[in-house]
Write a structure and sequence with these properties.
Elements: E1 2-3, E2 9-11, H1 22-32, E3 39-42, E4 50-51, H2 55-60, H3 62-71, E5 76-80, E6 85-86, E7 96-98, E8 105-109, E9 112-117, H4 125-134, H5 137-149, H6 153-163, H7 174-183, E10 191-194, E11 201-205, E12 208-212, H8 216-219, E13 221-225, E14 234-238
């Protein structure tokens, strides 16, 4: 079980890339000591595209990838893989990597049990099939081979497409959607924190305190765990 420490920092959906560089500012501040934290939780989609076997994606973000790996040797970093960044263990060997199949992962804060996830768990059948395919290591090696044979044109096409994608939006009926999603699984008691949907809202689902983190890519925010009488309190900070 993961123990969430007081003062831990949570980052969700930064979608870092050369065209969306804010996440590096936070890492620079942590590295320099200007921002202090005992733990860093990367809640998925921290990178716009980062998939271990596709080397062009790692190469494109090599500076911050190396910076994060070095930082993880002195700071506890827990990385929950998202739907834009996965197969990461070979890239970040010193981090605790939580794959989709292990999410939601049980956690403990201030003696109270809860759960953490990126957010794309228990979606519909078509999405689950898509997730299995796109995360398959052999499929990713095949894409890497195609990209190599095409002189990097495939990875460039992916990056160009992602740079044009609108990722900030309101999800009408979001609370009802989450309630129905939870009803399809066993009850998650206590508290539940995830990203993915970019909504930045909190509410109770059948007695569970649910917190959806807003996306750093949309509102420049990260979150700090602070003591309160709530099951978990995540205070938003803006860069």
């Amino acid at each position: 079980m993961i123990e969430v420490k007081e003062g831990a920092i949570f980052v969700a959906d930064a979608h870092y890339a050369s065209y969306r560089p804010l996440f590096k500012k936070l890492i620079d501040l942590i590295e320099s000591g200007e921002i202090q934290t005992p733990q860093l939780f990367l809640m998925g989609d921290v990178f716009d595209l980062l998939m271990g076997p596709i080397k062009a994606f790692t190469k494109a973000e090599q500076k911050i990838v190396s910076q994060l790996q070095t930082l993880s040797q002195r700071l506890e970093i827990i990385y929950l893989e998202g739907n834009h960044d996965f197969q990461l263990k070979s890239i970040f060997p010193d981090m605790k990597i939580i794959t989709l199949k292990d999410q939601p992962v049980q956690a403990l804060y201030n003696g109270k049990e809860g759960y953490l996830a990126h957010g794309d768990w228990n979606e519909g059948l078509l999405y689950r099939i898509y997730s299995l395919v796109i995360r398959n290591r052999f499929f990713l090696y095949f894409l890497h081979l195609c990209d190599t044979l095409l002189g990097g044109k495939l990875s460039l096409w992916f990056r160009t497409r992602m740079s044009r994608k609108k990722i900030c939006h309101d999800f009408e009926g979001f609370e009802s959607y989450i309630v129905k999603k939870f009803q399809r699984k066993d009850r998650y008691n206590g508290w539940f924190v995830e990203g993915h949907y970019h909504q930045g809202s909190s509410f109770f689902v059948d007695g569970t305190f649910y917190h959806n983190l807003s996306a750093m890519a949309c509102n420049k925010s990260y979150f700090v765990v602070q003591s309160s009488d709530k099951v978990i309190s995540l205070v938003s900070h803006t860069l």
